[in-house]
Design brief:
Two copies of one chain form a homodimer. Chain A has about 200 residues and is mainly α. Helix content of chain A is about 70%, strand content about 5%. In chain A, strands 1-2 form a two-stranded antiparallel sheet. Chain A binds a DNA duplex (30 and 30 nucleotides) through helix 1 and helix 3.
Chain lengths: ~200, ~200
DNA sequence: ATCTTATGATACTCTATAAATCATAAAGTT
DNA sequence: AACTTTATGATTTATAGAGTATCATAAGAT
């Protein structure tokens, strides 16, 4: 108990209700104030559940956060191979669509403290996807690892900028911006697509 | 009292000694463990000063952090105009040299929590410098504000990557990488230098 | 209808923050 | 060198929040 990684589909309505309420409370509150200032008591008050109940599901606020963001990993894991693969134009746009559908959750991911390593996991996933689709140009002045890190973090930066400015452009436009500012320059300078064997 | 913004050059040796010890202790400890896990007691023990003494100089660890990073702003403020100006090649390299001379301090700046707004201040400084030197291309598909944010945060990301990988390349090489991956693509896609009037 | 268990309320321990006090020592001043 | 000022160290106190334990109840599962 008190472990969100026990994520087998729980049947008990009470459990699902409590977790849903606490999740929603955290998403709501992080839109209003910094994460570090949020106490367990605030969360349980907002979610209308008992204080001790929190600890029956999560070991800490960070644990709750982890559980929430884990859901995003699943979505991203499906998109990233195509993002780095044959049609990056479409895939980048798809991610921005995902963000627009769950802005609170992505805000959580992007604003989470570095020490939780939530972003690092995304970077790791993106790295694997990129390396599967691209290889270093033999003549490149830019090392492969720097380039990959730059590409993924710039993508995340674009999402963060878009969210913090209330998503002023369409997902398609943001996808195009990513291609113009990051991906195409990267292809020109450092990486080339691997030869696909299909 | 208890305010680091009282940064007029203090003459009292005891004051300067205490602040130096506490500063060094924080820099040292953040290299070993996440900032949030560091307590006042740990800091004062490491710095070999009394516990209450901390509060005679700083209101909180965040306040101490702010004081440390303020010094970096001064250095950066001198470099940024030239970074965005006539010779970005040299200036980018200069910043990497600065980082190599004070890795602990820059680590502090880059790893500090978002809620402190320390990085935001750097982004703001960089934005002003960039806008002073560049203007939007009339035909650009990429909006000006996104571009500027991307440029500056990518620069900071490069520094962060370099630090976290123990600075494997020379500052000159990192400056070149910044030009290849970020600045030149940006100039090609979105911005052009303002006409200088000298 | 019965069994099972998640919940709410409460009390308690522990840790860390933050402020206050006072004798001492170390700095600055003449 | 003698004097004055004040920063420091040690200690105490109050407060807030994390995290654990207990028990009667209510709500869901079967």
């Amino acid at each position: 108990m008190a472990n969100s990684s026990t994520s087998l589909p729980h049947t008990d309505l009470r459990i699902r209700r409590t977790r849903r309420l606490l999740t929603q409370a955290l998403v709501d509150m992080t839109a209003e104030r910094p994460l570090e200032t949020i106490t367990i008591r605030m969360l349980t008050d907002r979610a209308q559940v008992g204080y001790a109940t929190f600890y029956r599901h999560y070991a800490s606020i960070e644990d709750l956060l982890r559980g929430i963001v884990d859901d995003l990993y699943i979505n991203l894991a499906e998109l990233l191979p195509s993002l780095a693969g044959a049609q990056p134009e479409r895939a980048a746009t798809l991610v921005f669509h995902q963000v627009r559908e769950h802005p609170g959750h992505y805000r959580l991911l992007l604003h989470a403290d570095r020490s939780l390593g939530l972003l690092d996991k995304v970077v790791e996933m993106g790295t694997q996807a990129l390396l599967a689709a691209y290889e270093a140009r033999p003549d490149s002045r830019v090392p492969l690892d720097v380039t990959v890190d730059h590409c993924i973090r710039s993508f995340l930066n674009l999402i963060a900028w878009w969210l913090s400015h209330d998503m002023p452009y369409a997902p398609e436009r943001m996808g195009q911006i990513f291609l113009d500012l990051v991906l195409h320059p990267m292809e020109a300078m450092a990486l080339r697509p691997r030869i696909s064997l299909d």
